[in-house]
Amino acid sequence: MRIGLRLRRWPLAALAALAGCGGGFSLYFGDGGWPLQLEVLAPRRIETGRDFTARPGGLDSYGGLHFEWDFGDGSGTATNAVATHRYDQAGSYTIRLRVSDRWDSLQASLNVEVGSWSIVDGRPCTGTGSSGWCQLEAPGGSSARFDGLWFFGPREGIAREEGGALWRSSDGGRHWTRAGTSAQAEFAGDGSGWDLRGGQLWRSPGLDRGWRAEGTPDGTLQAAQFVDERHGWLRTRDCDGCADRLHRTQDGARSWQPMTLPAGAGAVHFVDSLQGLASDGRSAAWTTQDGGLSWTPAAVNFGDRGGRVQRIVFAGTQQGWMLVADTAGASWLLRSSDGGRSWTVPVPAPVAHVADLAFGDPSHGWAVGADGVILATRDGGLSWQAQASGSAQALRVVVALDARTAWAAGAGGTLLATATGGR
């Protein structure tokens, strides 16, 4: 006689793993007369940022049972019999299910892989099964040369060509539409953009959808950075040979306040509305915790390898990297673990000439350069490993969303993406 609802205490007869709707881990309880099977039914391969359904398998009915779902991402416990969930970060997860009644309980689990598979599926890749780095159709064709690339999640992205052509994608870079032309537009993490052209500051509220000229302080505009739609900084100069001045807005460029700027600071980078870093690339660096009102010297020793600061990258507020090029063009890296207050002695970059650097989290990052070179780190930049890019073109830019999802672009219409960390 088969019993399907109540989970009674029976001796364990067998334990097996079976596949179902993508696979599952099955437990069999019973005395040989009625096998009771529990398994997690869900896709083994799940798309980042999209809802999916997980359900229990092997039960005749859900009545009188209590369900506990743990999706392994810290989101808490779901108690519906059939659960809908979404993973916002790529990675490996274990879905665990516990089903119980007043007498006993059963458990099952399923290992799943979460990634931005829709970006790379069906494209030529350096690995099997959409793994490694995959070639995407580049906007502008094979003659395009990209010097800017931004993604604001696994779908929405913007690419910039040399000369200022802007392209927008809403499917992770598989398809693009022409968005407009800029001088040297940049974009913050929330999708808001800024551009300096014709001696004016131009602003876009989000994803290059419309631009407007903004009022600015007196002086010639030298550089700008925004960390979101409201908070930004401008560097201006009153005359040739004059020192730069720093200004801050907290209301989306409607008003500006004068800030201080360390003498000789050639590079200025803000992590958020308050935390920033400045450096001359040769002998000194400074940090601010109040948006540029005051600066504190940072402990840094460039040694004999100082030069021009090419890039300052932060993963969170504490872990940062400074990419510096010496007078011969060779690249060097410095690393901070305390928000920029101190920096390691510079060490050679993974290749002689690094064009760009990006980190998906404090441990996982990529560096790109000439001849299609891509190098990856899984220990915060302490060591680097070469990855096959499938291209011999110079790569100019790289952007990382997390430990597995990244894009790279450069000359010859080269546009690459990975959903597996490049491996």
What does this 3D model show about the protein?
- With 423 residues, this protein is mainly beta.
- 1% of the residues lie in helices and 43% in strands.
- The chain contains one helix and 38 strands.
- The strands form nine sheets. The protein has a five-stranded antiparallel beta sheet with strand order 1-2-3-5-8, with no helix packed on it.
- The relative contact order is 0.10.
- The N terminus is likely disordered.
Summarize the structure.
By secondary structure, the protein is mainly beta. Helices cover 1% and strands 43% of the residues.
Please specify the SSE layout and strand pairing.
Blueprint: E1 12-16, E2 26-29, E3 36-41, E4 45-47, E5 52-57, E6 66-70, E7 77-78, E8 83-85, E9 91-100, E10 105-115, H1 117-120, E11 134-135, E12 146-151, E13 157-161, E14 165-169, E15 177-181, E16 186-187, E17 193-197, E18 200-204, E19 212-214, E20 220-226, E21 232-237, E22 245-249, E23 257-259, E24 267-270, E25 276-279, E26 285-288, E27 296-297, E28 308-315, E29 319-325, E30 331-336, E31 347-348, E32 354-359, E33 365-369, E34 374-377, E35 385-387, E36 395-400, E37 406-410, E38 415-418
CATH class of the largest domain: Mainly Beta
Counted beta strands: 38
Tally of helical runs:
1
Fourth CATH level, the homologous superfamily of the largest domain: YVTN repeat-like/Quinoprotein amine dehydrogenase
Structural class estimated from helices and strands:
mainly beta
Radius of gyration, taken over Cα atoms and rounded to an integer in Å: 26 Å
Shape: globular
CATH architecture call of the largest domain: 7 Propeller
